[in-house]
Amino acid sequence: MTILAQLITSFIASSGFGILFSAPKRALIQCGFVGMSGWMLYYFLTPAVMNNVPATIFAAMLVSVLSYFCARLFKVPIIIFNISGIIPLVPGGLAYNAMRHFVENDYTTAIELSVEVALLAGGIAIGLMFSEVIRQVVVKLSVHK
C-alpha cells in the first residue's frame, strides 16, 4: 500500500472511530490527525529501523503527546484523542489470524501470533503510560523551578 493510502486509511479509521466513540464533531479532524500521525511513525520505523514492538511503543507515545496538546487546545477530554489515535495501532488482523490458527488446530502458529498480539497491545499501553509519566515529571520539575 502506498504512503498516501496509508495516510488516508489511518486518518479515516481514527476519525471513524471518533464518531463511534461519540467524539465532538469539532474534534473529529484532530482525532484523525492524531491516529494518522501515530500510524505514520509506526510505518516509517518498522521496515528498516526497528521491530514492531518498539515502533508501537514510540507511536503510542506520539499519540499520547499529540492527544495532550489537542485536548488542551480544543478543550476536549484527552481520552477522546487517545482512544481514536491508537486504533490504527491495534493488532486486530493479527489477533484474528491467531484465533483462526487455534480453530484450525495449528497451535504453534497460533501461540506465536498470540504472543505477538500481547506484546503489541502491551506496547500500546506502555507507550501511552510512559508518555504521560514523562509529561507529569516535566510539569513537576518546571513548577519547582
UniProtKB/TrEMBL annotation:
One Gene Ontology term from the biological process aspect of the record: succinate transport
The protein's UniProt keywords, in alphabetical order, are:
Cell inner membrane, Cell membrane, Membrane, Transmembrane, Transmembrane helix
Instruction: Provide the topology term for how it sits in the membrane.
Output: Multi-pass membrane protein
Sequence intervals crossing the membrane: 53-71, 78-98, 110-130
* One Pfam family it belongs to: ThrE_2
Q: Where is the Threonine/Serine exporter ThrE domain?
A: 6-134
Instruction: Give the UniProt family note.
Output: Belongs to the ThrE exporter (TC 2.A.79) family.
Which named protein is this?
Membrane protein
Kindly list the organism's lineage: Bacteria, Bacillati, Bacillota, Bacilli, Bacillales
